[in-house]
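Quick one, T. Sequence first:
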Amino acid sequence: KSMNEMLPGIQEIEKRLEEVVARNEKVSRDLSEAEDRLSKFIKAMHEEERSLKKRKDRLKSAKESRAEHLQVVQSKEVEMNKTLNKAQVITAKAQKTVKKSRQRSREVGTGGDDDNEDNSQVDQDDTEEDIDPESIEPMEVPKDPEYYEGKIRRLQKEIEREKDKRQLTETDPEVALEKYIRAKKALDSKLETIDTIEEHVEHLVEDLNNRKKMWRHFRSHISEMTNNNFDEILNRKGSSGKIEFDHKSKALGLVVQKDNKDGTSQTADVKALSGGERSYTTLALLLALGESLETPFRVMDEFDVFLDPVARRIALQTMIGVAKDFEHRQFIFITPQDLSNIKTDPKLKIFHMKPPIRSNIVGGPTQQTLDC
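Structure tokens:
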């Protein structure tokens, strides 16, 4: 009576356990899908970061090249101005010397040594400060202006080729700076998104580890309960045994002691058992494992093969007792043996099949029906 009173509670607990297992499986699948999506997103983010890094490197190289070119141009302009000033000064001094020489020649004539020395002497008192650059007349060059224009065009083409070679297509520094700012904002936004995702991943991994821990605890509990039930069923026949679960290699081993009072009768090789002992051990294993399976129907055919009468009687009593304990499941036992010593009740029914009709005609009717 007490067992019947506890059955609804046990059934409720089993239903809750089934729901928890289903939820765990669903969460595990959802987590696997989330990890796949996250890995794809992270991979895309890494590609975007590499592309952005290349653009930043190109922009940095462009800035450095531009600074170098500006420095070179400025230095060349300074040198050019200095050279131009020197050339203008030299030209002005030469023109002034020629004018003075001509004027002295007209005044004095060509006869005196002192006059020749005066004519050949360059006026050292004229310095660059005494010369007005605006009064300097342009120099005559030996080549046409088209020559220098062509030279300038060639130098400009070389600069453009060098820019294309270094991928420095952006000439406006403000536009380049604006592009850099936009790219940096995009990078900061994506990095913030990655940080958020990584935080979620950490929480998911922590939750997954907790679920795996609970699952291992649940698996250990099932293994322990199965082992205890296996030993209890064997004890009804005067034997004992245990089930060795190897979860790592997914293997199952049996250790059976034929006489639970004789330790020397223990064996780990099921083949060393007799046919009846092996059949009863297999039956005990199936019953022990079945208590942890949530299947609505269980069918066992010719389970009592090779069993002696005593073992068969114990096996039938054990199976019927287990079947009655699980009212929410239906057990079907098929056997060709006699069941006249089994008493029926509202939970136990026996169906006898009529003996097959032996016909001398090949292919004749051999239909069998159930006799309740």
